[in-house]
Amino acid sequence: MKQHIDSAPSTPGKFKMEKSPYNRLRLHSSLAKLTFWSLFFLVLIYFFFFKSPSPSSSSSSSSLPSDLSRRSLRTSSYAGPNFEKRVRASAKIRSRTGISVLVTGAAGFVGTHVSAALKRRGDGVVGLDNFNDYYDPSLKRARQALLERSGVYIVEGDINDAVLVSKLFDIVPFTHVMHLAAQAGVRYAMENPGSYVHSNIAGLVSILEVCKNANPQPAIVWASSSSVYGLNTKVPFSEKDRTDQPASLYAATKKAGEEFAHTYNHIYGLSLTGLRFFTVYGPWGRPDMAYFFFTRDILKGKSIPIFEAANHGTVARDFTYIDDIVKGCLGALDTAEKSTGSGGKKKGVAQLRVFNLGNTSPVPVSDLVGILEKLLKVKAKRLVMKLPRNGDVQFTHANISLAEREIGYKPSTDLQTGLKKFVQWYLSYYENGKKAAQ
Ligand SMILES: NC(=O)c1ccc[n+]([C@@H]2O[C@H](COP(=O)([O-])OP(=O)(O)OC[C@H]3O[C@@H](n4cnc5c(N)ncnc54)[C@H](O)[C@@H]3O)[C@@H](O)[C@H]2O)c1
């Protein structure tokens, strides 16, 4: 091989073919090598373009945004008049004061409820979700079918796919983005930290980048979390309290998100509102959350873990019903001021807000189990355990006076009422527990 390269003329135009058998042999071997390398590159290209994993399975992937961008360029379903027609129809505003909203994470628990509520009041809504399998994707598909019936189209794609998200902005000049797509859950962060970085860090920055470049720039309302209060012990949690002691990687990514929000507001004039949700529950909820899997396991006769803190300390949560959260999201969207930048440049000071959206009445987890027992008419097998140090905090309690004042947020559903609605939904969705929730 070396000899062959070394013997090649430095000036290709001066190459003169000689007819000796040795040279014919060399020619054959070069042709064989050329064929081999051509085939090798063809196989590489084939695997790169046709066999790379789909965005929908990227829950555990830590692929870079550029990979996804390249992929979307060849994804024909994102192109063509039919795709654009569906996006436009879904984004059509039907009320005089309506807004057009891109809802990320629309096949998720909160995203489905917010999308449906916006559509009901006449706003234009387009969803975006990668349908990852962090929990049973069939539940996400069922939510998608529900939204489809009310006229909301969910585009299947990843928030890191900047080409796709920009394309959506080319088709619809969204006035607002409701950014709910994220890797949720506190405990799973120890198993798969990369998925949190992928969706909550890279994904958020990717959305902010597209919004900053959009003309006009949309106003953004996005989901932070009560988990940012971490090891804070002052109750109730107020937006002014310290949030620099996260107890989990999930919390750290949400805290980082709040810092990114500050940066994009400061440099590019994006209007940004972060909502710190407190343990949201309700119909179409998330199977990884305690109220959901307690219901499943009580019905199955399986024991359920009830955590207690040191010295038999009570673990309590400020459980917030989904309809109250939806009202908070709509209130935040309706009071969001316009972004002030254009062409990626800030033209003036833009709005930057953070609100707690909780219920202001923490309930011990053992009381939650008591309510479920009554509603399900089944005695739970309680297994009292020490609260593991894997990210969960002992209690959460929201001070919501700021949200009340600024966005008219007023939660009105107590845990008993909200759980009754959840259990009704659960029993009908899973056919009285005959169909197993996963
Ligand atoms: N439910 C709660 O109690 C709660 C509490 C605090 C904060 N939050 C936050 O609220 C938001 C909504 O939560 P939820 O309970 O509806 O969770 P969810 O998991 O049901 O919804 C999130 C959706 O985002 C999608 N998604 C994730 N990564 C994506 C990506 N890279 N690209 C495209 N789609 C992606 C998922 O497929 C899912 O459908 C999240 O940001 C979550 O962190 C929720």
TrEMBL record:
One of its GO terms (molecular function) is racemase and epimerase activity. It is a multi-pass membrane protein. It is found in: Golgi apparatus, Golgi stack membrane. One of its GO terms (cellular component) is Golgi cisterna membrane. Signal peptide: none annotated. Residues 101-338 form the NAD-dependent epimerase/dehydratase domain. Its EC number is 5.1.3.6. The keyword Transport does not apply. Homodimer. Belongs to the NAD(P)-dependent epimerase/dehydratase family. This is UDP-glucuronate 4-epimerase.
